[in-house]
Amino acid sequence: MADNKDENQKKGGIVKIAIFVAAGLVLLGIGLGIGALIFGGGEEPDPSAEISEIIDGKKESDVKKEEEVEEEPQEEVEMECVENADGEEECSPKKKVKKVNIEDKFLTTYYEFPGNFTTNLRDSKRFLQITVGVSTQYDEEVMVNVESHQLALRGIILGVMSEFSEQDVGGRVGKQSLADALQEALNVFLEDKEGFGGVEGIHFTSFVLQ
After folding, report:
1. What is the C-alpha to C-alpha distance for residues 92 and 180, in angstroms, rounded to an integer?
2. Alpha-carbon torsion angle 141, 145, 148, 151, nearest 10
3. Is 169 within 8 Å of 121 (Cβ atoms)?
4. Which of 24, 48, 58, 193 is deepest in the core (most CB within 10 A)?
């Protein structure tokens, strides 16, 4: 009888242990289920789904950029309208002219003495033949005075030429020396007759030694 009782007690202990173990497993399963619900079930992300999301995101950003470009205000084109021969008004886009700051420049006026000037050079058997023009950036009154005193100025030009030798008029320096002398002589005469000279440049349109 005692052996049967001990066996029954052992069996009852084993059953209790099994019940506790089963209960623990059940509780563990419940805990895992709740954790899965909270943290997304532990499923691995689908790579194809991520790629689709990236592509969709790029498409949306491109669409936004296009919308922003379309929303940019367009510059208004100024129209210029004219009336044609039939009395109808024709309009076309007006050309834009870029404004540039330009310093005021004086207008240069020129006058060329008619014909040429020929005279012998000092201490030489050779002749110098030139045609002479003058210029100024003063008003046109200077050239009016030059033209009105043309006869007297021609005599002055011939007189200055005859004072130069063949060596004096040689080369660029010689020509410039003759030009400076003519400018001074013409201005002295004009200042005496008109109260103002104004001749600023002497130009040789031909220069021949014969």
Report:
1. 55
2. -150
3. yes
4. 193
Average pLDDT in the 169-197 region?
95
- Cα(144)–Cα(166) distance, integer angstroms: 33
Backbone torsions φ then ψ of 80, nearest 5 degrees: -115, 125
Q: Where in the chain are the domains? A: 109-209
Phi, psi torsion values for 197, nearest 5 degrees: -85, -85
Instruction: Write the pLDDT tens digit of every residue in 14-30.
Output: 656 666 666 666 666 66
User: Rounded to an integer, what distance in angstroms lies between the CA atom of residue 190 and that of residue 148?
Assistant: 11
Q: Could you tell me the end-to-end alpha-carbon distance of the chain, in angstroms, rounded to an integer?
A: 169
Exposure class string for 58-72: b at 16+ Cβ within 10 A, else e: eeeeeeeeeeeeeee
Nearest to 149 by CA among 196, 205, 189: 189
**In this predicted model, what pLDDT tens digit does every residue of 128-148 receive, in sequence order?**
999 999 999 998 899 999 999
Identify the CATH number of the domain defined by range 109-209. Answer: 3.30.479.30
138, 140, 146, 147: CA torsion to nearest 10: 170
As a whole number of angstroms, the distance between CA 93 and CA 99 comes to 18
